[in-house]
Amino acid sequence: MTRITKTIVLCAAIILVAAIGAVVYFYVLGGGVVGSNGQPRSFIFFPGGGESGSEGVGNESGQPAGADNGTGGPATTRFAQIIKEPAIGATLTQDESKILFYKRAGGNLFSADLNGENQENLSNLTIVGLVDVVWSPDRSMAALSYLEDRTMRRLIETVATTTTVFLPQNAASPVWAPDTSKRIGYIDRGNSGVRFVASDPRGKNIQTLHTSPVPDITALWPEKSTLLFLTPPTYLAPSLSFLLPIGKTAVSYVSARGLGLLPNGLATITAKSSVDANGTLLPLALVNKSGQLIAETRIATVVDKCVWNITGEALYCAVPNNPPGFLPDDWYKGKISFSDHFVTIDSRTGISADVGTDTGQSFDAINLFLDSKNQYLFFINKTDSTLWRLELQ
Description:
By secondary structure, the chain is mainly β. It has a domain at 1-50. 8% of the residues lie in helices and 41% in strands. The strands form 7 sheets. The protein has a 4-stranded antiparallel β-sheet, with no helix packed on it. The longest helix is centred in the N-terminal third of the chain and has 26 residues, at 3-28.
């Protein structure tokens, strides 16, 4: 063997040994690559086979399979039907230890634990045809609307004593003053127009706060010193709204087809829903007291499917998936129903995040409410009037 040949063979042997060492270092000992557990990754001949000692295969977010990735998964474990009978007017007690709700069958008031257990009948008052419940701020009283002989009638029921006081026959759109349960307002429709009247819960100390020639308006009472009036929402024509500082002149607020408004608890921000001329839902907008845009969102829904948290910084909404029909008219009339997913919206930016999607159950959520710690989102499923709870934390 010549000297040159020996040199070539020696070099080849050195390269072969180095290659084998590299294979051993990277694929057996891990090559210093650190895994998610802070330890060196070690592959046993198959570098794509996962980390040794792992408890499950990760998903695209790097979380174990089955973990909650912030989009509601595994969603089916976070939704719970807590009242299986048709219910209406559900809310939390003031100390948030119980749920209050009326059963549609008979209209009796019940309480239950937050999981729906230990139901207790709080009232033997039978209210057939109950259609709407508006709770006072401290949930000690409720304004009830019900149909009797094709006529809408309204009364106030006190929870502790189950005593009742009837509102005038022409009373409509009852709403409580936001800072007290000692004042309630309602629209009083007459032949020459309407007036907004406030009284105490006994129907005494009546005071007219506003008169209007517009025959069909509804009222909101976002803060103690301010009223908010709206014309009915429809895709056929723009709906109007105007603010009334009590004791002053009303001023125009915002206008849109299918207009819906939902002020937060501080009356600093209002969520506005609307539609285009074809009855298609448009994304929610967040506006200030002057009606000026604060933030745009990408969430197309109606404010009837939303609720503010207690600080007024976040809006939680049920969002229809590919909603059909001429909206919001067809939905209000009961011609169509939605299938929703749930989101939260940052009031400062309008940015949203999913909080719940359940592929095994179709929800058309209304009457949403939260606990003060944002642990649970409660809602009525419009399709069967059952009460559900979504665990947020």
